[in-house]
Specification:
Blueprint: H1 9-18, E1 35-42, H2 53-62, H3 76-80, E2 85-86, E3 106-109, E4 115-118, H4 122-149, H5 153-156, H6 161-170, H7 174-182, H8 186-208, H9 215-219, H10 229-243, H11 250-264, H12 266-276, E5 286-288, H13 305-316, H14 348-361, E6 368-372, E7 383-387, E8 393-394, E9 399-405, E10 408-414, E11 423-425, E12 429-435, E13 441-447, E14 456-459, E15 462-465, E16 467-477, E17 484-497, E18 503-506, E19 512-518, H15 526-534, H16 540-547, E20 554-560, E21 565-568, E22 586-587, E23 605-607, E24 613-616, E25 620-622, H17 645-652, H18 659-669, H19 676-688, H20 696-704, H21 725-742, H22 748-755, H23 766-775, H24 794-813, E26 827-832, E27 841-845, E28 853-860
Parallel strand pairs: 4-9, 5-25, 8-26, 13-22
Antiparallel strand pairs: 1-2, 1-28, 3-4, 6-7, 6-24, 7-28, 9-10, 10-11, 11-12, 12-20, 13-19, 14-15, 16-17, 18-19, 20-21, 21-23, 26-27
Helix pairs in contact: 4-8, 4-10, 7-10, 11-12, 15-16, 17-18, 19-20, 19-24, 21-24
Amino acid sequence: MRLQFTLVPGMVLLLLQLAGCGGGAERAPLADDSVQMRVENLLPPGQSGHFSVDAQAVGSATGDPADFGEHVDDQRLMYWSSQYKFGGFQDVSGREPDLQPRPEVAIFLDEFGVPAVYAETVEDLWYGAGYIIAQQRLFLLDGVRRQARGTLAELTGPETVPQDIQTRILTYSEEEYQAMFDGLSQIAQQAVNGYVAGVNQWIAEVLQDPQMLPAEYAVLSSVPEPISATDVLAAGVLMTRFVAAEGGNEMENVIALKQLQEMHGQDKGREIFQDLFWVDDRRAAVTIPASEGLFSNITTAPGAREAVFKAQADFAQLLPDELLEGPGTGAAPAPLGVVPKNRAVPDPAAQAAAYFSEFLGHLHGGSYMAVVGPEKSANGLPLLINGPQLGYSYPSLLVELEVHGAGFHARGATVPGLPVIGIGVGKRLAWGLTTGYSKTIDSFIEDTSVGESPRQYAHGGEIKEMDCRDESVAYRAAPQGVPAGPAIFSESVEVCRTVHGPVVARSDDGQWARSLQYAMWMREVETIEGVIDWQRAQNFAQFNAAMAKVTWNENTMYADADGNVAYFHPGLHPRRHPQTDLRLPMRGTGEQDHQGFLRFEETPQAVNPQQGYLVNWNNKPAHGWGDGVGGNAITRPAAPVQRVLNWERQLAGSGKLSFEDLIEMDRQAGRLDVRAAAWKPLIQTALESGMAEEIRPLAQLLVDWDELHYNPAIDIEDESARDRPAETIFDVFVDVMRALMFQELLPPALFERLSATGNHEYDASPLDNLVLKVLDPSISAIALRQDYSQGLPASGWITMGLLMTQMQLMAEYGSEDPADYTRVHHRDEVCSLTGGIVGPCLSMPHQDRGSWNEIIGFERKQP
């Protein structure tokens, strides 16, 4: 944890920097305007998500994605060829506006359809932004609004009622949203009001001309509705919950712990659990080097952690499994008798509604960024790259926007429905974001056995009454699965909260309830104030002050024309009670309540690091920080082998870096298998120590492998294109080793959970890291509690794993020749929001790259 002083914040930051706990000091501003930015980016498949009825007919007839509309598909092939387009401020001098929805608003479009909005007032500026974003992304904007407000079933039918119920439970009432809006600054209110007016102006125009209506509405027999200021705030809350908050999955760990104890006995089961779910490995991959500072969100003293875990595990054993799922987790039943499942050929409208609901419910995150300081840069000025990963679709969740006026000068990416540029560039600075994944949501187990009604619970020595209200979730009928008619049906749901937060599940016997405490509760929209300031900032001091305002947990990197680079892991982080364990739920009776929040100065951050660069790929921010204790593909324990090493090794192993170097590194990072560097030395040692002759060719192929997937010879249009033997063999080998060591030791669901890597196919799962740790304990700072080697040396395990790998490959490919082991390269689906019912649907070769990539380089102007 950082040293703490009772001083003014600016002096604290300066002292910490000088002490080496927060990076180097801020660089002095340049005396002249001699530096400019080079900005290139790419947004696959394109800027537009508008499919008119006419364009839908043409695209469906030709099958060419480009025929579905202008700027729908003009960046897809560029992306898969690692090309970039100009992403800086447009030169609009001497041009007439392409659109002028108000006399005070001018909108210019570049060759890829990216809008630049000019106006003199805040409200006019964001009116123009709302108008053009609605024109390009109305159906997606409407979907974001509906998901945020829990009204998706009014469009898609009864199957999404459980999703809407969950939203109503976890978010806020109309009155609460209005209070949030009333608490915003004047500039934030003006931005929201202007945006809403612009969106509604476009909706009004669309409703006057059916030919302008997005074709999705015709398929779903619906029309868009005007949006409100509180809809915008709800969309902001949705995004903070989706990409910038994590946790609340402790009951999964409780069930895993109980299953392990049933299989192995209490003592051994608990030891295995702690080996599987570690909290703070000091050799884990981190963004901030130890030399730049240690940070901690763990309040339990090291010597007390074992006793605290035991006490929490004893409590966890008492909890019934049904606390895992409830209406607040999306597990409410859908209305009965409304959605038949027996149609042989689903209606297009039913398919469209189902796919749209699934798309919104299963968006995934996982993003990378790197910043290079002057010491590491070829031209002595900073570089920054950011690749947000939100999946591929027509259109993507992100949209590009440029704004100028009323103090705003920014271009970058935003989400339709939000009047901000979340990632991008200003006049003299740039910033990027990745999801932080720190645990900011906690489960509290409420004792509901104490009162006379299920609304009563014990807290602080008293019996308290939950704050409850009734919500009505409306939905359309869906005969034969086809949503139709007005939303005249409804389900009633009681929404209850304790002092900790919304109640998401209850035990069958009425003795317990589980509530979720969000660190950002009722403070999500404060982040708007910080992001607005980013778009107006001129230097590091202003940007740093804005960072202190944000409440979400989005890793942020920064670079400016003065040569400053920085990293922040911001937001509201609970100061948890020292008698709690991050992995397990807390008692709701009061004695384990949070003790406030960490100060901004205590959150992980580094300025102008000595090593000259910083990199993040959703990894642990710093040593000493406890996070990632959920065990799934997102909240896994932070480990030594993590995808961020694909960037770390490239940056650390290079000399001075240029803009072009970052482009090549971006291409490589998405193809490198981070696991290979850890496995190849072990395989080499086993090969040299003597190995059965029949598997030596497999071992040699792996030792000689360049560690790259996505064969450069692949034709991106060829769905049968194959990978090379080495990567085919390696993937099977890693799976075999994981199964050999742990499949029989763990419950099946837990084995699958700890094996998952989500969309990051070349990453290491928690069990992959554990297997490597068993074979080479030196990679981790945490000693294992159990001996999983069974007395077999590492070379023996690898030999056995290769033998089984060979058997599996021989059976699959019908050959003993490793040259024949070439799998079909995996492809990612790129489909419209309705699964191709409206708009295109195709596949492209998998790469683990950002789904909107931006590279920024600062350069000296030529005289």
